[in-house]
Design a protein that fits this description.
The complex is a heterotrimer of chains A (491), B (430) and C (81). Chain B has 14 helices and 10 strands. With 430 residues, chain B is α/β, with parallel strands linked by helices. Chain B has a 6-stranded mixed β-sheet with strand order 3-2-1-4-5-6, with helices on both faces. A two-stranded antiparallel ribbon of chain B has the order 7-8. Helix content of chain C is 32%, strand content 25%. Chain C has a 3-stranded antiparallel β-sheet with strand order 1-3-2, covered by helices on one side. In chain C, a hairpin with a 2-residue loop joins strand 2 and strand 3. Chain C starts with 10 loop residues before the first strand and ends in a 9-residue tail after the last helix. Classes of the chains: A alpha+beta (491), B alpha/beta (430), C alpha+beta (81). Chain A: InterPro entries: Tfb2_C, TFIIH_p52/Tfb2. Chain A: It comes from Kwoniella shivajii.
Chain lengths: 491, 430, 81
């Protein structure tokens, strides 16, 4: 018997193939104009990171062609990819789309019966300089001239510092939603404001969202979803919220974005000079300190150390955030009887698990619990979807789980989670205005009219019922009256 | 040629595993002196554009600069990519990068305009090469001039590289086998687990082919077999020592790499004008491990060739990326007795050692063969004509400086094939 | 004026909330509605197998009582087991 399954065999929800951690960044970049990229590509670090963000095939074609003096010919792309020489240009365009969107290549031009993609010169120059180290923009950070006997924090200390700062924010968010008490320090007001403008937290006493009391924020469903993301995604989301906030204040964000990439290329444990590395983005650098991206020995010094949060920004995929994180992150064992064993003592992870797991036993390094209907549904009430729970479970799966035959999570559990999710949404409710016709002709005309105006919700030709959006009621009524008159006079 | 269905071509991989590139760089001083003063190239009539490019002198420092940029591009192409470099000089090989963990590589101050990993790699390669050159100098001054005549010790470097590969991915097969002995397909279980790096070896050969494939130092008979015998740092003095182990050692490495699914790419620098015969054993290595073999045409543009041919990781080769057409591979072997490259050889039916003439006693395993079969074998062998047909697909006429191989190729001839008539003769074994 | 004899082009307009659901949920809703009287009935119009129109002011109540009804029909494992 064929078991119905929600998980399509080809789209197995493994963490690496699901949404990329830089999805928010990608959509932001895709909406920018040429001039914005010209500004970005002045920095070699940006060129390097943008190159890495391309899909592998596209990336290697760019590298393949980097040292050539000629524009990239479409025929070359086809032969390199073993495409049929007669393949349509759209197909080539499709492959090169990411590079076109990032303005690395200009759109196709025709020249003497050849189809060419001209290279963006600033990108080409930037990437060449990145590879040869001949740039002049200081985009990889100017080291700080420190005294011989200055104290230098070790890498572990920097990691701990960054972790504390960022988890502090996450813990604050969780505790606001669960009402369970950790003794959580409230983040600084700039951070809270960002959490509010980004919609991750709201002030429940301020329905308009205009003048919130930032000391009384509680987490929203968007915030809960944010908590379940992996770290890389969270970091980029926060950074993009920050960037959007800057844009909303009509500040130039290219400098700031270029700084993010530079930070991503820096070396953990090395100190850099703020004023020389980022002369035009100093205030943004200060803001990042509040999230734990950088560590400053003293608030007003020019010296700063990037933490692992910053240096791992450009590592492309979540798995690569390796070292201390990767193994610590893989702590969940999920059995087919819905029992969960979580080898962790991290307060934040436990709090997140507590959102949808009925925790039964707590040992110093182990949590035993059960995925049950009540807890999962209460999590769903908070706005967490089944697929988010699934992706959280699979991205935190213990290495042992990989030893059983795939899929990683047993289909019964995945399906059950989806079923619980569906159960919640059995009713679809929408405001409507129902038109009940007796004339088939009038019904069809009105249906066409409503369709053309995107006002149609549902049409039942047999019963001659038409359901339309309430706000279009007057317009449709007008139309019906007019048609009625026409039809009647036609009699 | 059937074009792939249009739907298929859309299924390009979204991600690739991180990739480790192990480079074996031939830095034999004599070879590089040849390369830095190449003879003028013969005219290349098929393509006037290529003919215009002059023979490019390529000195080691020039090439290392190009190589560094290429390695940087490898590191740049994906986070988590790594590079390992071995230098192979006359009779010895050494790890150049990464520095051994105990060595305190002076952490040079980061430069504001270069990515720190690039800077680390580049400075370390430079330092390592200088160290090796200094050692070479020292050897010469100690009067050990003969050592320069030894071929570059590819085998030693290759062995070290394979050990390195084995070290970085031991857990994949053993751990999986322990936990799940039923799993047949190691690669299958790899793909499920968290990302395992894919490895490949790139051999950059600077030594003209005849030096590697033909060794006429007929050093008499030796009983050593299967000894990849170049623990070079001890300096094995004897001339034939390298080559004797050389062929068997190289082939052992190749089979090990084949089993470990590590492709061996070969870039052969000496252009046809220096040496018409390609390094056939390296070519075999590339062919057997599904690597890419390519010979430079001596006309510059190495940086682009490196990027175009050797940069895509194995998971992207063949599909979707095209690989350059591989020249026909000569499958000749070297005999164990005189180290000659053979078209027709005689194989011991017990231990599969190869000899250039029929023998009554196998030199390796001491098996005795009936003495009266020897004349028959010899006469039969004269009937065998070396087959001029290449063993692989002949190269299509391409512009990239391909040349015709006028080699009489022949696979090694099994003794039992040659003596088909004598099949019934009992073979006495001591 | 809504007489079908008098005017073939007459149109009847009703506004409310359109409910789209599976047929099982629909039956439960019908059952819930049948237990109510007079002004407390929430259904305006039963349309077909999977649709009905209900009164706007009862939306939340209907959703909750459907959840309750479904909850009654769900097996919950004894948490002590």
């Amino acid at each position: 018997m064929v078991q119905p399954s929600f998980s399509h065999p080809r789209s197995d929800p493994t963490p690496s193939t699901s949404a990329s951690p830089t999805a928010t960044l990608d959509t932001f970049l895709d909406n920018q104009h040429q001039s914005y990229f010209e500004e970005l590509y002045r920095s070699e670090a940006v060129c390097l990171c943008i190159l890495r963000s391309l899909p592998p095939v596209c990336r290697h074609i760019i590298l393949h062609h980097l040292w050539s003096h000629q524009p990239l010919r479409t025929a070359e792309v086809k032969s390199f990819l073993q495409m049929d020489i007669k393949a349509s240009l759209q197909e080539v365009d499709e492959v090169m789309r990411p590079a076109l969107n990032r303005k690395i290549l200009h759109p196709i031009v025709h020249k003497k019966a050849k189809m060419l993609y001209p290279f963006n010169d600033s990108f080409k120059k930037g990437l060449r300089n990145a590879l040869t180290g001949l740039g002049t923009s200081n985009s990889f950070g100017v080291p700080y001239d420190r005294e011989e006997n200055d104290e230098v924090p070790s890498q572990e200390e920097l990691v701990a510092y960054g972790e504390d700062a960022f988890e502090g924010i996450l813990k604050y968010m969780v505790s606001s939603g669960l009402g369970i008490g950790f003794s959580v320090a409230r983040p600084q007001s700039e951070v809270l404001e960002l959490l509010h403008t980004s919609g991750l937290m709201i002030d429940p006493n301020d329905p308009t969202g205009q003048n919130p009391n930032i000391n009384r924020l509680t987490i929203t469903s968007k915030g809960f979803q944010f908590l379940l993301e992996d770290r890389q995604t969270q970091l980029w989301e926060i950074l993009m919220y920050y960037l959007n906030a800057k844009e909303a204040n009509s500040e130039r964000s290219a400098e700031v974005l270029s700084m993010f990439f530079s930070l991503g290329c820096m070396q953990l444990g090395q100190d850099y000079s703020a004023s020389q590395s980022f002369p035009r983005a100093l205030s943004a650098l200060n803001d990042l300190a509040q999230y734990g991206f950088i560590y400053r020995p003293s608030p007003d010094s020019d010296q700063f150390f990037p933490t692992h949060l910053a240096t791992a920004l450009c590592s492309g995929d979540a798995v690569a955030t390796k070292g201390q994180d990767a193994d610590e992150k893989r702590f969940l064992i999920l059995e087919t009887n819905y029992k969960i064993y979580a080898y962790t003592s991290n307060e934040l992870e436990i709090a997140i698990l507590n959102l949808f797991v009925d925790i039964r036993i707590r040992y110093p390094n182990l949590i035993v619990g059960k995925l049950d209907r009540r807890n999962v549904k209460s999590a769903m009430e908070k706005g967490i979807s089944a697929s988010q729970i699934i992706s959280y479970l699979s991205s935190h799966a213990h290495p042992q789980m990989y030893n059983s035959p795939p899929p990683l999570l047993h289909p019964t559990i995945v399906d059950q989670l989806h079923l619980w999710d569906r159960e919640r949404n059995r009713l679809k409710l929408e405001d409507t205005v129902m038109f009940e016709f007796f004339s088939k002709e009038l019904f069809e005309d009105t249906e066409a009219e409503a369709n053309a105006n995107a006002a149609l919700q549902l049409a039942l030709p047999k019963e001659k019922f038409l359901f339309i959006e309430p706000q279009t009621k007057s317009a449709i009524t007008e139309f019906v009256k007019e048609r009625q008159n026409q039809l009647r006079s036609g009699l | 040629m059937v074009p792939p269905p249009p739907m298929e071509s859309r299924f390009y991989p979204k991600t690739t595993p991180p990739s480790v590139l192990l480079v074996i760089l031939d830095i034999h001083p004599l070879s590089w002196s040849l390369l830095s003063s190449p003879p003028p190239l013969p005219p290349f009539t098929e393509h006037p554009g290529i003919d215009k490019a002059q023979a490019t002198p390529m000195s080691l420092p020039d090439f290392v600069t190009i190589l560094m940029v290429f390695l940087n591009a490898h590191l740049a192409s994906r986070w988590g990519n790594e590079v390992v470099i071995y230098g192979a000089s006359a009779g010895r090989a050494k790890l150049l990068y990464p520095p051994p963990p105990n060595a305190v590589a002076g952490p040079s101050k980061p430069r504001p305009n270069s990515y720190h990993p690039f800077q680390l790699l580049d400075s370390r390669i430079e330092q390592g090469l200088k160290e090796m050159a200094a050692e070479e100098q020292e050897r010469l001054e100690n009067g050990n001039v003969k050592s320069l005549n030894e071929p570059p010790s590819m085998v030693s470097a290759l062995t070290k590289a394979l050990c390195f590969v084995n070290r970085i991915q031991p857990s994949s097969s053993t751990a999986a086998a322990l936990i799940d002995p039923t799993s047949q397909d190691a690669s299958g279980s790899n793909s499920n687990g968290p990302d395992r790096p894919e490895t490949r070896i790139l051999i950059i050969n600077a030594t003209p082919g005849s030096n590697i494939s033909n060794s006429d130092q007929s050093n008499g008979v030796s009983g050593e077999n299967g000894d990849d015998g170049d623990n070079n740092s001890k300096g094995q003095g004897s001339k034939g020592g390298q080559m004797r182990g050389g062929y068997v050692g190289l082939m052992n490495c190749v089979f090990a790499a084949q089993k470990a699914k590590v492709p061996i790419d070969v870039l052969s620098l000496p252009p046809p004008s220096i040496d018409a015969s390609p390094p056939i054993f390296l070519q075999q290595a590339a062919h057997l491990t599904e690597g890419i073999y390519w010979q430079w045409n001596g006309r510059g543009a190495l940086l682009q060739y490196l990027h175009a041919i050797y940069l895509p990781p194995p998971s992207l080769r063949h599909h979707p990326f095209a690989v350059p057409p591989q020249d026909a591979v000569g499958f000749r072997a070297v005999c164990f007795c005189h180290h000659k490259t053979l078209d027709v050889g005689f194989v011991c039916s017990v231990c599969l050692s190869i000899f250039c003439e029929p023998r009554s006693v196998c030199l390796m395993c001491k098996t005795r063969f009936p003495i009266k079969s020897i004349p028959t074998l010899k006469t039969l062998a004269t009937y065998i004509e070396p087959i001029p047909v290449p063993d692989t697909v002949p190269p299509p006429v391409i512009q990239k400086g391909s040349k015709m191989h006028q080699i009489n190729e022949n696979a090694k001839k099994d003794k039992s094939k040659a003596v088909n008539g004598d099949r019934s003769d009992p073979i006495e074994i001591d | 004026m809504s007489s079908a004899y008098g005017d073939a082009y007459a149109v009847k307009v009703t506004s409310g909330v359109l409910v789209t659901c599976d047929s099982a949920a629909k039956q439960i809703l019908l059952h819930l509605d049948s237990k109510r009287d007079g002004p407390y009935k929430f259904m305006i119009r039963d349309i077909d197998e999977t649709h009905m129109i209900i009164k706007r002011e009862y939306v939340d109540e209907v959703r909750d009582s459907l959840q309750d009804e479904l909850e009654k029909n769900t097996y919950v494992q004894d948490p002590n087991l």
